């Protein structure tokens, strides 16, 4: 059975297992966030503690990301992925039990969120490092686009599953759902087989954990294309994707709408991300991907600029779809370009640095923009940061031969032997 070109990567059996595992695990994470936020607020009536839980989920990427990258380069990536998802199954299962018997506190939930954040970062780094071993490199963008689709789709699935259960049965039952989702993800990961090389697996003696971290940084520095791509994703996340903290005030003051519009706008942005990834996943030529990369980079800034100009919810919904589509497609292509150009020996560390800078830029940007919103109106902020990113991209196109080479010439990459089709 031949799959449509849009879903070509799913024709490789082991990638299909990885894709399903990611869908289940990411849905578990979204379900956890819904239940944990509600439980903490109901126990403490404190939005500060809710924010602390979100921070606890995000900060492990900054604290442990470099070490996680080293581990992913030194140990069997499939086993580490299995450990990560099964650890979160145990984590959420224990929290479910504590919640159901009524001996849970906000700080227990925050501790569980911190542990979940560590395992999530390990899961994501392993997933990104494993993908090139499961499929031919010329289909990497298709794979990253499909991964991006489930990353955003999991938000719908996780929230859709968790919300009614939360209302009908409480957060403890939602945590039990998370346990089941993570367990399913772990079972899927057990079936994956990779082409990770014996030389990588054999180098297990880490006399100094910081030495391989520095080696990874130096490798990125010696590889101009990787440095440029990682810089691009950092600027993209800082200037075009760190706007969510501004949306409540933007909706209230500029759209003159209530909280229901906030949820709807986020839904349309997520829908745009799914549609964008699916509609471009079949682009397989390096030059076509390079052109799309530049176009979505420019569109990411322009659409955020336009969102700041909207004055009605309907216009915001329409523009929101384009915001989600352009940003998601850019992130998917950027990841595929990074993985194509990273040697297997350093792939875990490169993927980790890419993930740390992307998530860190969004976290810092949201904090700064939210803090300055009393002085800088949200619409001005979105228009300024979106416009600035467009200017930066145009300048880089003019001065960087490396960036222009992405769409001016064919990038030759070594083909990997993919898994058995279907």
Description:
The protein is mainly alpha-helical and 422 residues long. It is built from 16 helices and no strands. The longest helix has 32 residues, at 13-44. The N and C termini lie close together (7 Å). Residues 198-202 and 411-422 have low confidence and may be disordered.
Topology readout:
Layout (H helix, E strand, L loop, with lengths): L12 H32 L2 H28 L2 H25 L4 H29 L5 H30 L1 H20 L7 H5 L7 H13 L1 H17 L6 H7 L5 H22 L5 H24 L3 H29 L5 H25 L6 H22 L1 H8 L14
Helix pairs in contact: 1-2, 1-4, 1-5, 1-6, 2-4, 2-8, 2-14, 3-4, 3-6, 4-14, 5-6, 5-11, 5-13, 9-13, 9-14, 9-15, 11-13, 12-13, 12-15, 12-16
What brief labels describe this structure?
422 residues; mainly alpha; 16 helices; 80% helix; 0% strand; disordered C terminus
Q: In a few lines, what is going on in this structure?
A:
This protein is mostly helical and about 425 residues long. Helices cover about 80% and strands about 0% of the residues. Mean pLDDT is about 85; it is low at about 200 and about 410-420.
What is the strand tally? 0
Low-confidence stretches: 198-202, 411-422
Number of helical stretches of at least 4 residues:
16
| Class based on secondary structure composition and strand pairing | mainly alpha
Largest sheet: none
Percent range for helical residues?
over 70%
| Proportion of residues in β-strands | under 5%
What is the overall pLDDT average?
85
The arrangement of helices and strands along the chain is: HHHHHHHHHHHHHHHH
Backbone shape: globular
Radius of gyration: 21 Å
Q: How widely separated are the two ends?
A: 7 Å
